[in-house]
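Structure tokens please, single chain.
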Amino acid sequence: MLDPNRELSEVASLARDLIRFDTTNWGGGKARGEREAAEYVGAYLSDLGLRPQFYEPIERRTNVCARVPGKNRDKPALVVHGHLDVVPAVAADWSVDPFAGEVRDGMLWGRGAVDMKDMDAMILAAVADILRGGDQPERDLILTFFADEENGGVEGSALVVRDHPEWFEGATEAISEVGGYSIDLAGRRAYLLQVGEKALVWIRLVARGVAAHGSAFHRDNAVTRLAEAVATLGRTTWPVEMTATTTALTQRIAELCGTSDTDPDAVTAAAGPASRFLRSTIRTTANPTGFGAGYKHNVIPDAAEALIDVRTLPGGEERALEQIQELVGEDIEIQIVHRDIGLEVPFEGDLVTAMVDALGRHDPGVPVLPYLMSGGTDNKSLAALGISGYGFAPLKLTGDLDFTAMFHGVDERVPLDALDFGQRVLGDLLRTY
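Here you go.
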């Protein structure tokens, strides 16, 4: 039977194959596991002459790492990392099978096409180009593919860093996802380079009341109390708070768009669909993501709980928790499910210059802007080893593609030519930095 994907480039084929491994991670320890995907990556690395190491601290939660020797072993090593798990996908909501790796309309569709099996494939293909050509990277590369990133790395990068810090010996910097992609600014292309991440605090709100018959006249209803608290929190617009990164970003956007407006919300709106990401980086967000209560239609339960995804600017976690308690009321209990640090590093230095220059060689004259990511990556775990992390998964995108909506969204997809572009830019960086 003729293979409809026979003309795919290697990077696209790798991304397609990785998508076809269902590595769904529901969080809280419930996951299909990354083992088969990690074995696939390990086999590919072995074929390149590398010696991958595996670490599976929890059954099927597999991490894989390989070191690529560089020309100059005196230079600090660079960690180039990705994650192999993906968030759940409800197939009925999609136009395609989310785990089929279908190619349609010049794009690769599937869960992980954007977050982040595209970058995993770009890493593998870029390194393959270097090694097959008989070349070496400028410095040692530590290629690492983690489990459990979509659960905050609790069963992935956090355990690897704790149990195998030697994997990262000699490394001072890292690059990973959610940076290096292009956005449209009033008809002009620009790239976002990620130099920071918001802090993460996943909380559970718990309301308690008195159980009763569903037909009763009853005021002490936990569901009602929790619903009011969740609605209040979900409708709250948090005030703008600027950091060095977001200040620099909004100033550059204003310059490029030729506006004198100084309101950060108005300035970031010039980024079109990407403004949803950018507006999230200039304030705390606290989004309800789950609600549970009750066990029978005619029984009023004595407790109800809701999940809230809280992201604050680096260092703002405690103040945000205090404000949330004020918003929901003292009778609502706040339980911390998971929390992790925020990160922010300067938009300067040799690695930043190298990333900007690599983009410039492949898309000349296009500006590169610093930005603070609203979510998080495994760079948070690596920070415990003193490794500074950046987001650099270079993709040249068309202005009409709502790329940021693809993260954890429906019909996730990435253009094939953007994958090829990313492989070339990433390979250029790894050869020369």
